[in-house]
Design a protein that fits this description.
DNA-binding; DNA binding; elongated; mainly alpha; RNA_pol_sigma70_ECF_CS; transcription regulation; RNA_pol_sigma-70-like
Length: about 190
Amino acid sequence: MLRHTGMADFDDIYYVRRIKDGHTDAFVHIVRRYQRMVFTIVSKIVSRKVEAEDITQEVFIKAFQFLDKFREESEFATWLYRIAYNTTISELRKRKHEFTAIEDNFANVPDAEIADTIDEISIEDKLQYLDVVLKKLPPDDALLISMFYLNNQSIQQISDITNNSIANVKVKLHRIRKFMNFEINKLIQL
């Protein structure tokens, strides 16, 4: 995923201000720039493409409706991610999706017992396994790990987006990685 340069930030603010000034057609630039990024996040959690597209659309509708609440104190991308994160989770709760909660007793399995066979498989296989395992995670955990690995968000950015402390994000990422390694190992051994 492309890192946002200062230029993108400048462009975002420029378009946001134009939209706030009543030039609503400028919103198309925001959608074009972030559509793929938002869809990527959503589709990692929502397996049906149609549903993922609906939720992505919902994210942009909310972003447009709440644009006046964007205070320009954080990067626009972070603000938009937060909307994507919250919208996806609340939509999935509404639709009553069933998820495997990461059991607390699982957290007691020592890291050493989870073999690092993951390092020995190809990237294509890894991504395929990752998709399978992501669907088993609760939506907020799946979004967290997607932001970290697939969108190269820093722990600080994830903390801003999810309103979790940095320490909490680190603990969650560690726990999710452990669960994923465990699950991927099970898949490899099939």
